[in-house]
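tool=predict chain=A
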Amino acid sequence: MADQQPEKTTAPAADAPEPQPTAVTNTDTPKETTETTEPQPENKNETTTAQPAVETTAAQPTAVEIPAEADKAPVEGQQSPQATEEKPVVEQPEQPAYLAKNPALAQFVERLPAIVSSTGHAEMWGVPLKDQNDAPTVNVLIKFLRANEGNVKLAEEQLTKALKWRKEVNPSALAESTSYSATKFGGLGYLTVYKEANGAETVVTWNIYGGVKNINTTFGDMDEFVKWRVALMELAVKELKMAEATSVIDYDGEDPYQMIQVHDYLNVSFLRLNPAIKAATKKTIEVFTTAYPELLREKFFVNVPAIMGWMFAAMKVFLSKNTTRKFHPISNGANLAREFPSLKEQFPKVYGGSAPALQEGARTVNLTQDEPAPAAPEAATNEQPKEQAKEKKDEDVAQEESKPESAPEQPKAEPAVTAQEAPAADAK
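tool=predict ok
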């Protein structure tokens, strides 16, 4: 049997050209036939009569019928190059350089759509929050990230709280369309903008706590005091013009979108003990720490009394080390202008400059004069029935006529009543 096996293998091969004469001329066919028949010799006990080579060859297309691409088809189980080319190639947008070198900022930017969606508010300091290609938007995120020392999770939490607060309070309206009592807040806060020789602007807010006329009147309503303080801050933020930014600030470099704050405590000697002032100060610090991070370049405490130590200790609890390093206490307010040599002449004279007083040239929030309290006699007359008022008038006339001519005139009650009501009106 072993001697006859080659005859059975070669016999069909000799007959193959008769039904397929063109297979001889097709140089590609042996390649296909070889690939098909290579596994056959592995089982020598199998006869080739069941699957003759002629039938295998006949099942394959002729050289004329085979397309040119057929020779390039891969074996089963592999993906053809043609199928790979048909898939669309999605090109990733090129990442800006300021994100490529700061992975934390890039991650924070990616989280922005989710933050805006969860808060339902997309505005911060007058800047509509958009995407990674919008310079004002990225500058806002940089400030929140800086305030949290690069911690993306903490920055996201703070931005979320700040957006919710702005949505609820609407601080822009507090500055633009809300008026405040001149009796309570007149002369306590101002805004100035000083220009450098190169055109740069320095925004300064002034808080004149020595101008408080009545502690309970100004600080008694804590929420009202915070709103007034926020309104002054919003006026200053608007002057920073963050929405007009055309380039992204350097994360580790200087930030031109910051302001100077001056707190004047001349003639202030009550801050340590008064609970209303301490509560209002604490609430203001909490709001500003959350909603206005990295907007402060430097803060100067001028004409500071010795008892102000508790306030600096309180600020260190709520503010970061980077922020507290910006605080500068100055015992004599006349030395303030020395801190700004290029702007010295623009500061008011009382602070060491040459400009007029703040009351004459600085801006402030919208103030309205309080309506005077109604006269006491009119209120008394309105409360009494007409008949009783008439009887009392007749009685007064009778008493007046019965007085001796030499008797001195009695003082009227109106001034005394008005004087007694004045403190009550201030306490509202």
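Residues 108 and 141 are 7 Å apart (CA to CA). The chain has a mean pLDDT of 76.
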